[in-house]
TrEMBL record:
It is an enzyme of class 2 (transferase). Residues 257-390 form the GGDEF domain. This is diguanylate cyclase. GO terms for molecular function: diguanylate cyclase activity. PROSITE patterns: GGDEF.
Amino acid sequence: MMPLPATDPETLLAAIVLVFFFAAVVWWLFATGMRVTPRASLCLATANLLLAGALGTHALRGLAPDLLSYWGSDVLGLLGFGLLCVAVPWISDETPRMAWPALLVGAAALALLLMPYEGDLHRHSMVVYASMSALCLSSACNAYRLLRQRVRRALSATLAAPLFIVTGLLLVRLLEAWLAPGVTPDIRASSSFNIAWLWSTLALNLVLNATMAFFVLMRLILRIQRLTRRDPLTDALNRRALAEAMDHEHARLQRGAPYALVMVDMDRFKQLNDSHGHAAGDAALQALVQALKPCVRAVDRLGRLGGEEFCALLPDTGLAGALLVAERMRVNLEACGFSWDGKTCPLTASFGVAEASLADASAEQVLMRADRALYQAKAQGRNVVQASGA
C-alpha cells in the first residue's frame, strides 16, 4: 500500500475549502448564467458555500469567537448536507421533502447549543457526524431511486456511489468519536487517521460535485431525447417514436407475442376549430389525450399520428382485449366534460381496431387495417368502435 503524501491537516483543509468554494462558483454560474436546473444548481452552490464556511470557521478555532468557530462551524456543515438533501430531488423536478431535513438540522443545532464546548468534544462530534450521515444517506438513497427510474440498476448504483461513500466517511468519523473518544478530537490534529480522512474527503469532494454535474447533464440529455420523441402539444409519442415502437412489437410478433392497434380520430374536429378557434382545438386535443391515458397500461404506447388522429399500441393484446380498451376510451372521452369560454363542447371520437397477424408483412399493414376500420366507424355515425377483419 502506497503511503499518503506527507501533508499537514491545515493545508488539506485549505485545499478542501478552495474546492468547495470553486464548486459553489460553478454551480452559481449554472443557476444564474446558463439557467441549468436553476433551483437545484443554486441549492448546490449554497451547500458548497456552507460546507466551505464550515471547514473555514473550524480552522479558526482558538482564533475566532467560540460561538462562530465551534457551534457556527458545526451548524454550517449540517445546513450544507441538509441542502444536499433538497437539491437531489430538484435535479429530477421532484418536490423535495424539506420537513425532516429541517427538523433534523434544527434538533442537532439545538442539542449542540445546549452542550458546552469545553473539554472532551466527542459527544459534539457524534451529534454532528450522526446527523450528517443521516442527511447524506437520504441524499444517496434518493439519487439511486431517481436514477433507477431512468437508467439501469448498475449505472444507477455507480452514479449514486459517491454519495454512499461520503456517508461511509462520515460514519467512520462517528465511529471514531464513539469508540476512541479523545484520540483525534479535531480534524486539524496531525494524525495518520486525520490525514487519510482529509485526503479521502478532498478526492470525494471533487468526485461528488462532478457526479452531481453529470446528474444535471443526464437530465438535460433525457429532456432533449424526450422532446425528440414527444408531440409538443399533447405529450403523446410523435409519429416517429410510435412507428419505432410498432416495428419493435411486429418483430416480437414473429416470436409469438401478439399486439393490437387502436386508431382514434376526434369527431367534428374541424367544426370545433372553425367555431371556437385553434386554441380551443388544441385544448380539445389535450383533453382527448388526458381522457385516453387512464385506459392504457404502462407497457402500452399512445401516439399522435397527425392532426386529430391518434393511435394506441397494445402489446400482448388480442382483438377482444383491444375492443374493450377502445370502448373504455370512447366512454371516457364522451364523459370528460370539455368546455371552452364557458360553453360545453361535447367531445367524441371514432375508433378503429386491428389485431396484428403473421400475414402482415409490417406494422404499417396493421395500421392500414385499423385505419379502414376507423373510416367504417365514421360511416356508421361516429362515436363508434369498429373492428377490422383480417
